Amino acid sequence: MVGEGGGAGTRQDRILTADESQLAAGAQRTSFGDRGPQVSSDAPVKLSVQGLTLSYGTKTVLRDVSFEVREKEVFGIIGPANSGKTSFLRALNRMNELVPGMRVDGTIRFNGEDVNSFRNVYALRRRIGVVFPLPVGLPLSVYDNVALSPRLTGVTKKAQLDEIVERCLRRAALWDEVKDRLNALGSLLSGGQQQRLTIARALSQEPELLLLDEFSIAVDPVTTMRIEDVLKELREEMTIVLVTNLVQQARRLAQRTAFFLNGELVEVGETEDFFTGPVLDSRTREYVEGKFG
Ligand SMILES: Nc1ncnc2c1ncn2[C@@H]1O[C@H](COP(=O)(O)OP(=O)(O)O)[C@@H](O)[C@H]1O
Ligand SMILES: [Mg+2]
User: Fold this and answer.
1) Calpha distance 1→95 (Å, rounded)
2) Domain presence at residue 81
3) How far is the CA of 214 from the centre of ligand 2 (A)?
């Protein structure tokens, strides 16, 4: 229940904790230039969504959404609970096929290719990795959590697996904390460590596009900032779509952001404009200022 439908106010409740205000102040000091260089508008399009409408049975939860995400961009998605953010991520790598009654209309292109044209959905999901809001505990050791996908794709040599596991755990800023207990169950790690383990697991597939769904909802603010640092490094190599319940997190990380509200794409723009620049719709400014949740 924690990750989903937390209800109005989740965002504010979290922002108001003392730790988070301190962190927010720290982030102010380091300036929002941390978002990294603007992605040029002629960078290749990594993901293109055209006329996307999502429904469960007869209930439409996202209507006629169109936008593009460029290569090596961190693209934010913000919006209150139940606005359709998680459903949107599900559609991108066809996880909707695992959800009874979920219907996807419209077109999603990944590298210009319709995602429905992938005959092997697992091949698609290897290229589009997902990190869910709560660590999805596989009953496996720390090592095996990360080695699972490489093994499934044919890596069998121990030395090579060791190398992949170490590299992914390092990139997820977890290696130092777990290197002495690689054989312990992943589920015995702390919540923040498990969240980084899911990131390491996603990285083991070397995705080109990484989707993150409210990763910070179940981790403490210090871990949140560590994971944000990890994302700042990953954006050099991959495209990231970051769904976040923390508008300041979008501000820290995303060059551009989309605002979803009640199944509608209200607008897409430069993230900083949502806070201090021109907005197309006054609800966008009201939302980022916390006037409604
Ligand atoms: N498996 C499902 N079956 C039916 N309705 C669903 C399902 N998953 C989500 N919904 C509904 O879709 C709407 C959007 O949900 P979701 O995509 O989870 O939004 P968000 O991630 O922005 O909170 C909500 O009204 C939610 O109740
Ligand atoms: Mg969600």
Assistant:
1) 19
2) yes
3) 7
Q: With respect to residue 110, please indicate whether it lies within any of the assigned structural domains.
A: yes
| Closest atom of ligand 1 to CA, residue 57 | 4
User: Could you give the number of structural domains in the chain?
Assistant: 1
26 within some domain: yes
CATH number at residue 221: 3.40.50.300
Has residue 218 been placed in a domain? yes
pTM: 0.87
C-alpha 82 – ligand 1 centre gap (Å): 6
pLDDT in tens, 138-157: 789 999 999 999 999 899 99
Write out the residue range of the structural domain in which residue 78 sits. 10-32+43-138+208-288
The reported pLDDT for the residue numbered 191 is 87
Q: What is the pLDDT of residue 137?
A: 62
Give the pocket of ligand 1 (CB within 6 Å): 4, 56, 61, 79, 81-87, 99
pLDDT tens-digit map of 206-255: 999 999 999 988 888 998 999 999 999 999 999 999 999 999 999 999 99
Q: Which residues of the chain form beta strands (DSSP E)?
A: 45-56, 59-70, 74-78, 102-110, 113-114, 128-131, 209-213, 239-243, 256-261, 264-270
